[in-house]
Amino acid sequence: MGAVSSCCESCFRSRRSQQYEPLLLENEREAVADLLQYLENRTTTNFFQGSPLTALTTLSFSDNVDLQRSAALAFAEITEKEVRPVGRDTLDPILFLLSSQDTEVQRAASAALGNLAVNTDNKLLIVKLGGLEPLIRQMLSPNVEVQCNAVGCVTNLATHDDNKTKIAKSGALVPLTRLARSKDMRVQRNATGALLNMTHSDENRQQLVNAGAIPVLVSLLNSMDTDVQYYCTTALSNIAVDGANRKKLAQSESKLVTSLVALMDSPSLKVQCQAALALRNLASDEKYQLEIVKADGLTSLLRLLQSTYLPLILSSAACVRNVSIHPQNESPIIESGFLQPLINLLSFKDNEEVQCHAISTLRNLAASSEKNKTAIVKAGAVQSIKELVLEVPMNVQSEMTACVAVLALSDELKGQLLEMGICEVLIPLTNSPSSEVQGNSAAALGNLSSKDGRTASDDYSAFNDVWEKPDGGMHRYLYNFLTSVDATFQHIAVWTIVQLLESGDPQLISNIRLSGLLNPSIRQLALSRTPSATSSVGTPRSHRSQSQSYADTDTGEGQGEIQLLARRILEFVDGDVDGGLPRSAAGSHVAGSSVSSARDEELRRSVREAFSTGSHH
Question: 15 pLDDT exceeds 70?
């Protein structure tokens, strides 16, 4: 508190030496004397109540500008040393000083108010008492020091959610946007910090866009100041959460992606992280997914993905996930060397969100190309999934089983996946507490069981190996799904049984024909047209994303298909047919090359739907 003593005491003593004392009112002389005494005992004095506050208040409301300066300086230096919740009796004199025409008084009063605005209770009370109006006036001051303090105070006030909308509607955004271009770096930092604090709600973001903040924020991405870069990058990341704002950015800010890609190589880790997150939000849109790759964003994203710093891993993984949605980006991502780092992140047990982003990216990369599916399996993705899937959190299980279901669409890879023993982990997961995990696991098993253009050399022994185990094996899983109240699950079961019967494998055919567990349920479904309930498993993340064969089961047509498939099974079970279904019954949509292309198209569409809207957090 030595600075307070030297400042205030020198003011008062100077005034006496210039014979100002006769000009002071009696109460002002007493206030000066009292304050000097309190400053002598400053270590034990509470300036926010009682006589010390009364003395400061008297000087604040004086008509003598020198006394106002002394009071304002005292408030500034006292609050710099100590901040506590204060009442109206403290704020009123400071707000009065803020309305002074004297630059020195304005500067010190706005500094004091900014110091007090660090406290949560004070933030609310300052706004409630009308503090925004004089602060906006001070932001328009020609004096840089006054601008800096006023903007700094608004920045602190804007950290409280209850104040944000009031600030947005107060007229503060236009001067804040103008001051963000200030040549004074302190003013620029405070102004961009304030703008960032205003980007945390839809309504405020819109007010900010209307105030013309977007071009200012984009231009300041190239600032040499790390704090300004960080504030602007984070603000733009928040603004890009809204689809309408992304369209505005796309129309008017042609250099945005290039600037953000450059910032992923910033010396500052927090700037790198926010740049990746901003690109992640932009990559909710197809245009930006392509533009990020075109701007060589993959090089920096790959480096961040292999960082040891969790926020960088998380932000880059989220960004790559969105970029991978576009079919044209699948091969460039694989060719840039992402497969192994993504597979390594599947076992990143410190953060399940990282695991989810990694496996979802792999699923996207596998979506539309046989070559990419093969590369993913060759890189060891399925082996890692098999080792991890029973132990990872449920959300990760859902993504992993969905990825296997996509890979299992490839006729060339089915045998390889079966040889790896993937069924051994999929079967237990058909009994998961999560309907999504259940559906995705069953979809994967169904896709593994189906094959276009079967040959005598096709090996279905893997299904015989798991017919009764683990956890009751295929046998118990198919029974559970046949007897489910969910029509989607019933459909998966009858469709899968048709595939197994069409395999021509004598052991499988015998297992199904002789099953006292399955056949009663199949007969019941063959006779019934009563609509069953459907579960939430029919979402873009569920088994319907993986195979076209299971679509439309929540409609009457789906129920009819369940009945048709059940009857086809019974024709086989009750008839004298060996090695396949009667040809008159075999020509359904579950076989034939046309289904494969339809299935791929359904998959591509569902993957786009799954991630095109859920890209900001």
Answer: no
